[in-house]
Design goal:
- With 186 residues, the chain is an all-alpha fold.
- Helix content is 54%, strand content 0%.
- It contains four helices and no strands.
- It starts with 28 loop residues before the first helix and ends in a 34-residue tail after the last helix.
- 26% of the residues are buried.
Length: 186
């Protein structure tokens, strides 16, 4: 049997290594809490919409159902990815831009779905409750968007640096030489 004492001094566990990464460069504690609230409000909006027994015109109900379910599932996925170390294993490097676009689109879709469902429903208590949670979720998505821009700045502004290509190295051309190496001596 081999003696493993050779490896003991060099293989020490990293005490700072953890799977939970909040706060990090992609998520601070306040935005983490806001994302949790978004997930909960989206889930409650989806559940209260699912409890509705009958509808007069169901297209607005189905649109609200789609948006609330999508918001719940994808926001939960984004929350898990950004609050753990899993985001570093996906190969995606533009998390602030992705988070900005996703949060803005879902917030806008949730607002539209809530307005449409509020204007075209049967007036039952469950429908009004679902609409209320839809509007609250929309507000939280926009609050998250404002916090993202406030803390990290607008993610699409160009700062003069070359953007990394899709997984490849960033190539920048070197400035032309001012002195030639093979100049004749005079």
């Amino acid at each position: 049997m081999a003696d493993n004492t050779v490896y003991t001094p060099t293989t020490a566990p990293n005490p700072k290594s953890s799977w939970f990464a909040v706060p990090s460069e992609n998520m601070d504690k306040i935005r983490f809490i806001v994302k949790i609230i978004e997930v909960l409000l989206s889930f409650v909006a989806f559940i209260t919409e699912e409890v509705v027994n009958s509808c007069i015109t169901c297209s607005s109900l189905y649109f609200f159902e789609f948006v609330s379910c999508t918001a719940f599932l994808f926001t939960l996925l984004l929350l898990i990815l950004l609050s753990t170390t899993l985001h570093s294993r996906t190969g995606i490097t533009c998390w602030p831009s992705l988070d900005f676009v996703y949060t803005g689109c879902i917030g806008l879709l949730f607002l539209i779905a809530s307005i449409v469902f509020a204007s075209d429903n049967g007036g039952t208590t469950m429908e009004r409750t679902a609409v209320a949670f839809g509007f609250l979720a929309s507000v939280m998505f926009f609050v998250d968007l404002v916090l993202l821009v406030k803390n990290n700045g607008f993610p699409f502004k160009s700062d003069g640096k070359a953007a990394p290509s899709n997984g490849g190295p960033v190539t920048t051309e070197a400035p032309p030489e001012t002195e030639k190496l093979n100049t004749p001596a005079e």
